């Protein structure tokens, strides 16, 4: 049996090495391009999804979010809870936050953002918002009459370019007047403008917990505690760990909390991705099939002659399968090289999306999937035409 | 060797049927060199296709080497072609991507010969057809006469019981045709190789032991060649 494969391999190797190099090159190029097409868009989309998710983690929620027990409005004994959480293995840091509604007025313009009250030294260990201060500085623990505004909230002087109600360009050093939920009104100096690229965060205003507690008359409480864990990806397990360590408050993952519209964007991308993969795959299958089919049909006469001199059709079919597999392997290899070049280029000069640069993410499972499907396709594309040609009458094949 | 009985090949159906071969009886003994002649369209190629197992007769019986070849399956017929028959085509029909040597040993490789055995057999046979120095040439690098000799060598590699050739000289000039005919004659004479060759050239007849003439698919005459020119 192995003799057959040997002859088939011998025949295939000669037909390839001594056959038309131009056709071979063209075929390999087409398969390479098809391969790149199959991987490229999904890897960009994967990059975008990862960017979105990373932003949610970095600028909005950390990995886990602790919220008040059911039927309670607030987390009490926040310090104790924070310390308890920080001791749990796998937790890096946590940051208790207050938030509440407010009205901010600047030069006659007003907006009603969410006020977020943080302890900066905790916050910087959990989120990365402090790295996204566009101008001015981030808060420090001792700040009392200072406020950090999100860029969307601060707005620009020419309010026409703002798509939402803003303060019309409240810049660093300016004074804004904030009215809190309980009616207290205070003046704050704008210490910094935050631009994280995450729209919810960039619409908020930030002050210190100390200041907030002073105004609201609360101590040692929080509306939520954000938790950063050592690794991203095992939030579900960490959530259970937290509960096992006796955290009785509600624990959510960033995914649970991430805004519905983000979820739906990611969901839409998944659908786009899926459709694009299917379409590219079908295109790939059709193109490879046609190219190899034509190649085989072109050799119809030769196939007839081989049969006429007594070479069994199974040997002929196998030799065409070998050829197709070889062409496909070359095409895939060339495609990988091409893809790596493209990805390298895009990593060096990334596509910039709102919220940051997107580095394409090469998912190995997708590459494996693509390679496997091209493999199967070339198997079929090698098999079907040679099967058809060897099935027809020898004389009509020889006549061409 | 060959016993063909009432061999017919009918193309088409109903009113437009063509009787390419119409009840031909033919018997060929071992070691004969038989020429098949006749006008264009008389059925020469059709007969050779049947003898070469490239086609099946519409009716009639055919025994080759004692085997009822019509009873064989396609796979068995392919194996029969490989092991018992050598076929030479008018247009040489070499694989252009294979060298002379590779073209020749392909059928023996299929039979499971080792590379060493293949190479040895190849060299012997190339010497026999007078192409020792063309071993590594591709068909495109050889003349028509040389290619046809390679094709004959390929047909001989598996020691066939029967060598069939359909107008092997049709694309060659007189000089090259003579080389081919001399070669076939030598194979027939020295190795007792049975050869059946189609030709419509009058002057080829002097090489044949026997000439079968076809007309409209029927055997018109069968006997010793007219050799007044010889
Ligand atoms: N596939 C076919 N379909 C229909 N008719 C055919 C087919 N092959 C051959 N014929 C007919 O059968 C008859 C015999 O053909 P064949 O090829 O055997 O002639 P030939 O003696 O070899 O002629 P030539 O000297 O021109 O090669 C011709 O009339 C031809 O038209
Ligand atoms: Mg003919």
Description:
The complex is a heterodimer of chains A (400) and B (230). Chain A has 400 residues and is an alpha+beta fold. Helix content of chain A is 55%, strand content 19%. Chain A has helices at residues 2-18, 21-61, 78-87, 120-126, 151-154, 209-216, 235-244, 254-257, 260-298, 300-308, 313-348, 364-391, 394-399; strands at residues 64-67, 75-76, 91-106, 109-111, 114-118, 133-136, 146-150, 175-180, 185-194, 205-208, 221-222, 224-229, 250-253, 351-353, 356-358. In chain A, strands 3-5-10-7-9-8 form a 6-stranded mixed barrel. In chain A, helix 2 (21-61) packs across helix 11 (313-348) and helix 9 (260-298) packs parallel to helix 12 (364-391). The radius of gyration of chain A is 32 Å and the shape is elongated. The model of chain A has no long low-confidence stretch (mean pLDDT 89). Chain B has 230 residues and is an alpha/beta fold. Chain B contains 6 helices and 10 strands. Chain B has helices at residues 44-51, 74-84, 100-110, 115-128, 144-156, 174-191; strands spanning 2-11, 18-28, 33-38, 59-64, 67-68, 85-88, 162-166, 194-198, 210-215, 218-223. In chain B, the strands form 2 sheets. In chain B, strands 6-7-8-3-9-10 form a 6-stranded mixed sheet, sandwiched between helices. Chain B has a 4-stranded antiparallel sheet with strand order 2-1-4-5, covered by helices on one side. The longest helix of chain B is centred in the last third of the chain and has 18 residues, at 174-191. Chain B is globular, with a radius of gyration of 17 Å. Chain B starts with a strand and ends in a 7-residue tail after the last strand. In chain B, 49% of the residues are buried. The model of chain B has no long low-confidence stretch (mean pLDDT 92). At the A-B interface, helix 1, helix 10 and helix 13 of A face helix 2 and helix 3 of B. The complex binds adenosine-5'-triphosphate and magnesium ion. The site of adenosine-5'-triphosphate has 13 residues of chain B, from strand 2 and helix 1.
């Amino acid at each position: 049996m192995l003799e057959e494969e040997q002859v088939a391999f011998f025949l295939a190797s000669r037909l390839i090495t001594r056959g038309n190099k131009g056709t071979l090159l063209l075929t390999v190029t087409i398969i390479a391009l098809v391969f790149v097409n199959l991987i490229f868009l999904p890897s960009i989309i994967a990059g975008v999804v990862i960017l979105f998710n990373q932003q949610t983690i970095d600028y909005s929620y950390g990995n886990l979010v602790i919220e008040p027990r059911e039927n309670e409005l607030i987390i009490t004994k926040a310090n104790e809870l924070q310390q308890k959480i920080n001791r749990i293995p796998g937790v890096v840091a946590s940051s208790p936050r207050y938030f509440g509604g407010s009205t901010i007025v600047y030069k006659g313009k007003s907006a009603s953002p969410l006020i977020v009250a943080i302890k900066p030294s905790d916050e910087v260990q959990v989120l990365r918002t402090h790295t996204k201060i566009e101008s001015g500085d981030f808060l420090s623990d001792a700040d009392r009459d200072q406020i950090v505004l999100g860029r969307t909230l601060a707005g620009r002087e020419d309010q026409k370019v703002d798509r939402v109600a803003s303060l019309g360009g409240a810049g660093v050093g300016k004074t804004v007047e904030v009215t809190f939920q309980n009616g207290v009104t205070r003046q704050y100096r704008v210490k910094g403008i935050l631009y994280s690229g995450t729209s919810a965060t960039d619409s908020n205003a930030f002050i210190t917990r100390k200041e907030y507690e002073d105004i609201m008359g609360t101590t040692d409480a929080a509306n939520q505690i954000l938790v950063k864990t050592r690794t991203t990806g095992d939030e579900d397990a960490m959530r259970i760990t937290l509960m096992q360590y006796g955290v009785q408050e509600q624990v959510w993952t960033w995914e649970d909390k991430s805004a519905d519209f983000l979820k739906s964007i990611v969901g839409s991308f998944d659908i786009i991705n899926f459709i694009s993969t299917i379409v590219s795959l079908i295109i790939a299958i059709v193109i490879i099939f046609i190219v190899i089919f034509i190649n085989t049909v072109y050799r119809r006469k030769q196939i007839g002659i081989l049969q006429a001199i007594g070479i069994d059709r199974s040997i002929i079919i196998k030799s065409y399968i070998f050829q197709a597999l070889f062409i496909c392997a070359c095409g895939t290899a060339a495609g990988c090289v091409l893809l790596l070049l493209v990805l390298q280029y895009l990593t060096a000069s990334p596509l910039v999306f709102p919220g940051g640069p997107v580095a394409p993410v090469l998912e190995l499972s997708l590459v494996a999937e693509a390679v496997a499907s091209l493999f199967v396709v070339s198997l079929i594309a090698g098999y079907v035409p040679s099967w058809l040609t060897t099935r027809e009458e020898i004389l009509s094949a020889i006549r061409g | 060797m060959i016993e063909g009985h009432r061999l017919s090949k009918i193309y088409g159906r109903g009113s437009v049927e063509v009787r390419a071969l119409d009840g031909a009886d033919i018997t060929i003994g071992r070691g004969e060199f038989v020429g098949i002649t006749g006008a264009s369209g008389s059925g020469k190629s059709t007969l050779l296709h049947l003898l070469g197992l490239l086609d099946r007769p519409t009716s009639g019986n055919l025994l080759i080497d004692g085997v009822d070849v019509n009873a064989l399956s396609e796979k068995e017929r392919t194996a029969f072609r490989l092991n018992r028959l050598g076929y030479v085509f008018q247009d040489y029909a070499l694989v252009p991507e294979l060298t002379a040597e590779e073209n020749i040993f392909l059928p023996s490789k299929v039979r499971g010969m080792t590379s060493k055995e293949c190479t040895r057999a190849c060299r012997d046979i190339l010497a026999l057809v007078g192409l020792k120095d063309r071993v590594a040439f591709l068909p495109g690098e050889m003349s028509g006469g040389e290619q046809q000799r390679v094709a004959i060598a390929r047909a001989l590699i598996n020691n066939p019981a029967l060598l069939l050739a359909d107008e092997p000289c049709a694309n060659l000039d007189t000089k090259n045709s003579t080389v081919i005919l001399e070669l076939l004659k030598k194979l027939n004479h020295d190795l007792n190789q049975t050869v059946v060759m189609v030709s419509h050239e009058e002057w080829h007849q002097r090489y044949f032991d026997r000439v079968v003439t076809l007309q409209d698919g029927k055997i018109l005459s069968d006997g010793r060649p007219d050799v007044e020119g010889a």
